[in-house]
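Posting for a labmate who doesn't have an account.
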Amino acid sequence: MFHTGIRLLFVVLLMALAGCSAQSHQETGTVSSATSPTTGSQSAELTVAAAADLQFAFTGIARAYEQQTGHKVTLTFGSTGQLAQQIENGAPFDLLAAANIQYVTDLADKQLVLADSIALYAKGRIVLAVNRQSGVAATTLEDLLSPSIKHVAIANPAHAPYGVAAQQALQSVGIWDKLQDKLVLGENVRQTLQYIQTGDAEVGIVALSVANVPEITWTLIEDSLHKPLDQALGVVASSDHPDLARDFAAFINGQFGRPVMRQYGFILPGETPIVQSIPQP
């Protein structure tokens, strides 16, 4: 009887210790999942493929997100078409922020972007930009026909939505064919801006969101001259951090991100443009 009692006491003690251990693991797991959208990780690195017109706006948004969450955000900028091609080829992006929603929906049709994650985040505008030191004047698209203007820079319409918008605007006023000998094509809208900044092209058509630089002056182009630049984002289906990608997407479209986008001249979904709030240098 004595030995039986000892065995029973030993079993009870083991069960009590096991219960304490299980409770400790449960509490630790609760804390870990509460601190990060990424299961089992206190911090993670998010890789975002972003259209070149977002370089100024997204850099600030990403830094703020890093400070608030502790997660690192790596931004890769380029033309939307080229970024979409990289995703098709297996590039390890978590989120795509495109300059044209069509690229995102096309990837979703191929099951490369999660369809339920697609959301509009902005509408872009284009401007006619002139190098301040060029000695030429251009405030209308028709001014580009002037003999004093030798080079007109636009993003490559083959893969850059802002280049498509530039081409459509020039076609709308009937001068696209007449400008072929003057055109200088940038890989994306950011490179196009650099051509104008350096004077390699006296004038060009770029995104309003990147136009506020000291080297140029700009004139807003009527948006009726081109199809809308409806910009959308979506989580890449192969992402290792889909929950974190959704969280960053919500941050872009949330209380912090929306004012930053508006500051750079983007029209937000459901809002009217306030372009006069973008002062020129």
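Reply:
Got it, the structure tokens are right above this. Residues 45-123+228-277 form a domain with the D-Maltodextrin-Binding Protein; domain 2 fold (CATH 3.40.190.10).
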